[in-house]
Every structure is written in structure tokens, then in C-alpha cells.
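C-alpha cells please, single chain.
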Amino acid sequence: MAKSLPEQFSLERPLLVFDTETTGLSVSFDRIIQLAYVKYGIDGSIEEKTYLFNPQMPIPASATAVHGLTDESVKDAPLFKDVAEELFEIFSGCIFSGFNVIGYDLPLLRQEFLRCGKDFTYSAADIIDAKAIYHYFEPRTLSSAYRYYCGKEHTEAHDAMADVKAAAEILRAQIDQYGVDKIKEIQASSAVEYVDADRKFYWRDGQVCFAFAKHRHRPLAAVVESEPGYLEWMLAQDFSPEVKKIIKDALSGIFPSR
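Here you go.
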């Protein structure tokens, strides 16, 4: 008989594998819309469940495009706080796993619990992250990309010209493998969410939002209303002409449009 996951790891606590779908990528700002878990007990038991939550904020179209959840599909769902006690009990005392839970899902879940007055704590020793394991064995470096796409070893790594030539060869191999149109589509999709080339502002649900500093994730229009002095200060700093134009226009009531 195959061993259970906790047995394979010789765990003395349950292993809880989980994933979340959310309103966006900000750990501090965004909310959980869906949470699913499978909990493997040390006694061989397996428990699984999926929750839907009303995030009490609009779900951006960009998020809906990823997971398919809309304002309508969660309007009658409970709030996170309504089941926080139940979830806190389920998650307490476990080893956690999933794909990128260490960098995203766990910090986001901690924020949700903190809003409910619950201190959900964990340490690195409590996490077995499949993404971290994947990247350990498949490093995301220029040398590994060169090996994957070009079938050769990058023997002069970190020499600037050698790295440039390797990157150009990788791009040619990617074009051969995926096609120019797909490469352009990927490039466009990665750039479309930012308003400016410096990536100081980004689009969120049709609004221009800060992507940095103390107003990160706040709409530019809200900062114009509440703290115009901060924008005046930015105009005196070393920001690009494009960023300064966005700020000057905003202070005059003119905002970028897509």
C-alpha cells in the first residue's frame, strides 16, 4: 500500500494542501474569493472542502479573466469573517503545502485572519512549497534557460557580452518554438497593466493606481483628493518626465485613459 503524504514526510502533524483565488495580487489589499484545501491526517484520513467568499469589493475584470469568478457569482457567498473561526481551527497545527503558498497564499490568508482579530502564525519550517521545490531543481536563470531552449551550456555566464549573445539566442529559439505572434502576445499582456514605462502606476479595474511607495495600490484619483501635497512633492523629485506628466495632469483633473 502506498504511503500517505504525511507518512512519506514522517510528519507528526497533518499536511494541509491549499490554494486561493483572489481579487488581485496584493497581499495587503486584495481579498480571498475562493479557498480550497485537502487535509491529510497522520491517521490516514483525508478531508477536503471548497469555500466561496464575498470579498466586499468589486472583482476586477483582470482577476475574473484568470479564475472566472464575478461579483454576481459571489454576491450571496458568506464573508470571510463568517467562517474565520472554522477555518482557523482547520488550519491550526498543520504543515502547509501548495504552489507558491510561501510567497502568496499564506501571507494573504494571514491578512484575512488578522482582519478578524486572529493571529494566524507559521514559520518556514511549517511549509513544503511545491514551487520552491520546482525552482530548486529547475532554476530560473539565464544559464538554465540557455540549456533548455538552446541545448547548450552557458560557459561564460556573467560576462556581459556573452550574456547578451545567449539572451539573443534564447529569444530566437523561443520564436522558433512558439512563433512571433505568441511572443508578441505575451509581451503585450505583461505590459498592458502598467500605465507608464517606469511602472510607477498600473491599471486596476479601470483606475490608475500607485504601484510603489506609501500609496501603493491606492487609486491616483483618491490621492489627488486626499493628499495632493504628496503629488506636489513627487514633482520635485527625480521621476521621469512621463511620470511627472501623469501627476501634473492628475492635479489638473486629467487622468490617463486606456
